[in-house]
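GNAT family N-acetyltransferase, pasting as requested.
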Amino acid sequence: MVTTIIRYETPQQFKEAVFPFLLEKEALHIIQLGVISNWLQFPDRYSEAYLASIHEDGDIVGTAMMTLPHPLQLSDMDVAYVDVLIDDLYTLYDHISGVSGTVTLSDAFVENWTQRRGQSAVLSMVQGLYQLEAVTPPQGVQGQMRAAASDDVPLLAQWMMDFSTEALSESASLDDTIKAVERRLSHPDAMLYIWDVEGERVSMAGVSGPTQNGIRVNAVYTPPEKRGKGYASACVAAVSQLMLHKGRRYCFLYTDMANPVSNSIYQKIGYRYLGNVNMYHFDVAQA
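Structure tokens follow.
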């Protein structure tokens, strides 16, 4: 058997070559499918990327995507192909910011990469992957969901920054975050939504990364002083129902498995747990 790697110069080339493979396990591959779809909608989104497929006797057996400076995203593949992928990456990058993939696969990649490149790795989050096909709306929650508008941008930008700090331990400038929010509001497949209680904005949720049959729900955030009243559950349920009404067969989302509250909430409104994904970050300073 002959194992080879093919790299792609553009997201369109990557889509045409690998989407049929990725769609065989659509839920597991929502990041690669969604990021490429968004990139094609916003061509200036990324200036550098690693886009590759691994082949066994001509058939695709795995893919990898890294839109710098973001971590490497691994498709489902046999761990035997990790060495081949790292051999290719090794010729291009002295260091990478991290890697995300199923538990066994990401662990194997981290063990190999840290030994060869000397970067230390930290397991930053274990995420739960969920899929929804029908919504069970929560009862007795005040308010209603609406699409965000231009006058919501300053508040949403602040909420996005707070969300990134709290959930992802990441930070971004206010100007960059405002631009990101404005970009999302310009396209229905990247929209942000607000839960509104008598004119007061109390929670948000968004969608992004459309796939052939689904879309990912993300950016779920409620300010600390507004928590415990069911606003996030109601907002996510309403957004998910809207996506199904628009023709999506599925909604997907990731949770932090260290947060039992959010995992319980999503299951109560209809999200079904599919498995875990590890997110590792590498220490660039030690590369």
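Note for the archive: The two ends are 34 Å apart (CA to CA).
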